[in-house]
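Review form for a predicted model. The reviewer records the input and the model, then writes brief findings.
Reviewer: anonymous (R2)
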Amino acid sequence: MTFGVLPFPVLDTGRVRLFVGDAVALLPLLGASWADAVVTDPPYGLEFAGHGWDARAGFAASLPGVDLSGLSDGEVFEAWCAAWAAGALSCLRPGCHLVAFGGTRTWHRLVAGVEGAGFEVRDQIAWLYSSGVPKSLDLSNAADRALGVERADREVVVSERDTVLGATRRVVSKGEPVTDQARALEGWGTGLKPAFEPILVARKPCDGGVVANVLAHGTGGLNIARSRTAGGRWPANVALDAAQAARLDALAGAGVAGRFPVFHYSSKASQRERPRVSGVSHATVKPVGLMRWLVGLVTPRGGVVLEPFAGSGATVEAAVAEGMSVVAVEKDPAYAPLVQARLDRIADTI
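Model under review:
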C-alpha cells in the first residue's frame, strides 16, 4: 500500500489540528510515537442509515491493493479496523491507551482488528442509555404483506421534515392481522431495543514493565483520581444516563436517581450539543460529558489526543476542554465547519 504526502490541516489553532482525508492513509504519515492517547468513535460497520462510510464498499476503498475477495462483510470490516488501528499504534508512545466505541453486533470485529494491529485489550466500558429506538421488523405485518395483503387499519405517519437520519416513520396503529400466518406471528419481531454501546479500552505494549514505562514515558496507567465518580468512588467500567440510573434505583427501592455513585453518568448528546452549520449536521454524535470523562481517564495531563474519526468534533471539544491538544482526521470535508463551530462555542471557557 502506497501513501502520499501529508496534506495541510484544514484547521490549525495551535492546540487543534484537523486533517481531511482517509484515516488509514493519513495516520502513517503523521509520524511515530508522539500521541498520548487515541479516543475515537469510528464507524461500526452496520451500514448505518445507508451511509457508504459505514458499509463494505467504503471500507474496501480504504484498503486499495488488499485482496478482500472471499471475505464476508464482517471480515472486511475487521481488516479495515486492523488497518487504521495499526496507524494509530504507530502514532502512540509506548504504554498509551486507545478508547474506541463499537456497535453491539460488530464489536468483536473491532476488538479483533485492534488486537491484531498490536494493541493489548485491557477492558470494555458499557455505556447504558434509555433513549434507543428499536429497529425491529414486525413479522406479523411482514407476513401479511408477503402474502399480498395490506392492512386497511394500519396507520403510519412519516415526518414532514428530514432529521439527520432522513425522514422518520412512526406506527400509530399496527392494524389487525389478516391472514392466519400473520395471526400466528403476532407479537414477534427481529430486534431488541438498543440500550448500550460497548467502548473498547486497549493499550500499546509497554516498554518493559508498566512501572518502568510510566517512569520512562509517563504513560501506561489510567487517571483514576481524575475519573472518580460521585462520592469519590473508584470509576467502574459502566457509564449510565439518568434514565438508566433511575431504573436501577427503582429496582433497588431507592426511589431517587443517584444511588449508585460508582458509575459515571452521561446522557446522549442533546440538540444543543449537536452543531449544525449551513444545514449540515452529523448523524452520530457522542455527548461531550462522556468524551471528557474518557479523555481524562486515559490521557496524561496536558497530553496530545489523536482522533482518527473526528465527525462533528465531540472528542476535539472534550480534549480541548480538558486542557489537551488534539490531532484529528475526518474523511468528509463537510464536517470541518462543525468542528470549528464547537471550538467557537467554547472559546470563552478555555
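Findings: Residues 73-91 form the longest helix (19 residues).
Further findings: The chain has two domains: 11-133+197-221+266-349, 139-184.
Recommendation: see findings above.
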